[in-house]
Specification:
By secondary structure, the chain is of the alpha+beta class. It folds into three domains: 27-179, Glutamine synthetase, N-terminal domain (Ubiquitin-like (UB roll), Roll), CATH 3.10.20; 188-585, 2-Layer Sandwich (Creatine Kinase, Chain A, domain 2); 601-729, Four Helix Bundle (Hemerythrin (Met), subunit A) (Up-down Bundle), CATH 1.20.120. The strands form three sheets. Strands 10, 11, 12, 13, 14, 15, 16, 17 and 18 form a nine-stranded mixed sheet that branches. α10 crosses α11 (302-322). It is globular and about 105 Å long. The protein binds adenosine-5'-diphosphate and magnesium ion. Magnesium ion binds at residues 216, 343, 477.
Length: 733
């Protein structure tokens, strides 16, 4: 008996661990070799050109065209020496993927004979990709489909394969953003401006504040042969049917377990390439679900961390091919086991090297910490539904709000020590405002275990894995972001809402000072106000519990389970005003984003529904009928042999035959209804309305169809089942 599954399993058995990108040198010797970073710029650029780039990065100064020519020439010389034949403006359209259109360096020589490598400043700075098919939410009509990519000098160019990739923003003819990077960059500038103004009250030497990001990336690996035998994985990135394996993550033996050898070889290759791209990878480990893994680089400036994360997603996919593996970034590829996220560790650091979210050792640094800490709390409270809406997507909703990943409602966990501190601040009267910061905030106590074990210093915050937004000692960790998302699409909102509160903070403090309070008292008064105002967002308990769901609703914290409804946040009056006031997005850009989000939602669900129809009609039902026929033949044979007793002898077969018919009928009916629901929804022109209809009328069938298909998987002869099963997809030797 041979079918797609048995052939895939046979091929799977031949795959083994192997290295393809081994480099025996110490990492320090090849780290960053594929990036045109500052040291390389010094080598390849004139002092003038080098300084221009540094100025652009540090002070946001424009690079003049003639200098750009010099930079382009230096960049090209380096890239060609490294073996690059092409360059591309690398950009981040409103899909979660990145986009690239390669152009050759080779230009014809004058006189028509031969070619030479050429790269002009104007080409470095700006390109006009014919990219009219990217989602734009109405910002571009096809007849004037001009979109420009423009160089972002703050994120260094890099080489993947033989292509020089130049990070760029992607904007319309009108300058309106068509990408994720533009609002992110604007929001970083907003945080800088607002935070620096407050820092200057403490230290005149602070001239810049940079948001920092450390991104933990979770992902699944599946054998390529098994993957290819699953149309749902190939097309949707997740399994639409498939019964849970008898054993998956119950024993928690995969989490932090020994890394399987094939996976280890893949990770090592991936790391070698990542190091060459200047990514400071730090951790690697097994995650909770079988076949689920995670890596995290050391945190860094937000724009660069975000770009590097996207780079890593590309090279992981490339390298997996060599290992006959598929990397899955989908948020919920398998039902019944944990899904994947991208935990975004976020903080703010001054150009004098101070982490503004690190509780201090002196009263003064504590005061500064509390300014920023309370502003983040206040911002997340004020715009909790908007912030949560940034992670809403068809994919991520299969993950959020289950009993594993973060809940679909926003809350902040701060741990016991800080809760005590916050509570004491809330109780301060105007008379004793500074009594809290007079003392050092006790951040750590030593833990003694047994004699030979050195004393350990526990974090001042406990862990609460059920919180979507947790303070973890010197940063906040936003855990609800999906594993396939471009983090910029969430972080730009986080930056914006924090910047808004920092501005508000400063102006309230200024008022208090004007009315005669000392700076410390003026600040403490606002800190107290912010903490009191944001009280409802604080939750220290189990975010997965039903009690919390009820409590959150009572507090007016909305969940984002209804994805199309959550998208509406982008065009909500209050939020549009926020984006406009903070100079992040215009109303038109917000509307476009809203339109695009809905469009992607509809298309993804439409594709899933089609694949579901195909899987059930062309794989599951025919297999069920084949098996049922063999039962029928068996019953008929027994009847021939034992005409009198056959009914009793065939009791099980007869029951099964009728059970299978029942499931087939249910499946058939559901698929029919699914198709009808789609037909109705597809007639709707208005995209948001269409998304709502898809959510209300199409989505519910997906789970119901799956239930019957999975029941059939449980009763049908294993030999016949054509789709690799969960126990096979989730295994590695
Ligand atoms: P855990 O799984 O325990 O949360 P990991 O080590 O997997 O921790 O990831 C933590 C991430 O947070 C890393 O990327 C790390 O560099 C980053 N990080 C650490 N300190 C900060 C900080 N101050 N600001 C932003 N990110 C940080
Ligand atoms: Mg973490």
């Amino acid at each position: 008996m041979s079918n797609a599954r048995t052939r895939a399993l046979a091929e799977f058995a031949t795959h083994s661990a192997e290295r393809f990108y081994e480099d025996s040198r110490p990492v320090s010797e090849y780290f960053g070799m594929n990036v045109f970073d500052l040291p390389k710029m010094q080598l390849y650029l004139s002092t003038e050109a080098y300084k221009a780039v540094v100025n652009a990065v540090n002070n946001g100064e424009k690079i003049e065209r003639d200098i750009a020519d010099q930079i382009a020439a230096g960049m090209k010389n380096w890239a060609v020496k490294m073996g690059a034949t092409h360059y591309t403006h690398w950009f981040q359209p409103l899909t979660d993927a990145t986009a690239e259109k390669h152009e050759s360096f080779a230009d014809p020589m004058e006189g028509g004979v031969g070619v030479f490598e050429n790269f002009k400043g104007s080409t470095l700075i700006q390109q006009e990709p014919d990219a009219s098919s990217f989602p734009n939410g109405g910002l571009r009509n096809t007849f004037e489909a001009r979109g420009y990519t423009a160089w972002d000098p703050s994120s260094p160019a890099f080489i993947i394969g033989q292509t020089l990739c130049i990070p760029t923003v992607f904007v319309a003819y009108t300058g309106e953003a068509l990408d994720q990077k533009t609002p992110h960059l604007k929001s970083i500038a907003a945080v800088d401006k607002a935070a620096t103004a407050i820092c200057k009250m403490f230290d005149k030497n602070v001239n810049k504040v940079r948001p920092q990001l450390g991104i933990e990336q979770e992902y699944f690996l599946v054998d390529e042969a098994l993957y290819s035998a699953r149309p749902d994985l190939v097309i949707c990135g997740r399994t639409l049917v498939g019964h849970n394996a008898a054993k998956d993550q119950q024993l928690e033996d995969h989490y932090f377990g020994a890394i399987p050898s094939r996976v280890m070889a893949f990770m090592q290759d991936f790391e070698t390439e990542a190091y060459k791209l200047g990514v400071r990878l730090k951790t690697r480990h097994n995650e909770v679900a079988p076949n689920q893994f995670e890596f995290a680089p050391v945190y860094g400036e937000a724009n660069i961390s975000s770009d590097q994360n996207l780079m890593m997603m590309i090279i992981m996919k490339n390298i997996a091919v060599k290992h006959k593996l598929k990397v899955i970034f989908h948020e919920k590829p398998f039902d019944g086991v944990n899904g994947s996220g991208k935990h975004c560790n976020w903080s703010m650091v001054t150009d004098t090297g101070v982490n503004l979210l690190k509780p201090g050792r002196t009263p003064r640094t504590n005061l500064q910490f509390l300014c920023f800490f309370s502003a983040v709390m206040r911002g997340v409270y004020e715009h909790n539904y908007l912030l949560m809406s940034t992670v809403a997507s068809l994919n991520n909703m299969y993950r959020l709000g289950g009993s594993e990943a973060p809940p679909a409602v926003m809350s902040i966990f701060i741990g016991e020590t800080l809760t005590k501190l916050v509570e004491s601040i809330e109780q301060l009267t105007d008379k004793n405002l500074t009594s809290v910061t007079d003392k050092e905030v006790k951040v750590r106590s030593k833990l003694h275990i047994v004699n030979q074990i050195p004393e350990i210093l526990p974090d001042n915050t406990d862990r609460n894995r059920t919180s979507p937004f947790a303070f973890t000692g010197n940063r906040f960790e936003f855990r609800a972001v999906g594993s396939s998302a471009n983090v910029a699409s969430s972080i730009f909102v986080l930056n914006t809402i924090v910047a808004e509160q920092l501005i508000r903070f400063k102006s309230l403090v200024d008022n208090n000072i004007e009315s005669g309070l000392s700076m410390d008292k003026a600040m403490m008064k606002v800190i107290r106000q912010f903490l009191l105002e944001s009280k409802k967002i604080r939750f220290e308990g189990n975010g997965y519990s039903d009690e919390w769901r009820k409590e959150a609703a009572k507090r007016g914290l909305k969940d984002v389970k209804n994805v199309p409804l959550a998208f509406k946040e982008f065009i909500d009056k209050k939020n549009v005003k926020l984006f406009e006031d903070m100079d992040i997005m215009t109303c038109r850009e917000a509307m476009a984003r809203y339109e695009v989000l809905n469009e992607i939602y509809v298309k993804k669900l439409q594709i899933e529904a089609r694949v579901m129809g195909d899987l059930t009609t062309n794989h599951v039902i025919p297999t069920a009928i084949t098996f049922q026929n063999s039962l029928i033949a068996n019953v008929k044979g027994l009847k021939d042999l034992y005409p009198k007793d056959y009914a009793e002898m065939c009791a099980m077969q007869l029951r099964l035959i009728s059970k299978i018919s029942g499931y087939i009928n249910n499946l058939h009916e559901d698929v029919h209804n699914l198709i009808e629901a789609r037909k109705v929804a597809n007639k709707i022109e208005d995209v948001p309305q269409k998304a709502k209809t898809y959510y209300d009328t199409v989505l519910p069938y997906m789970a119901s169809i799956r239930r019957y298909a999975d029941k059939l998987e449980m009763v049908i002869d294993d030999e016949l089942w054509p789709l690799p099963k969960y126990r096979e997809l989730q295994s590695f030797r």
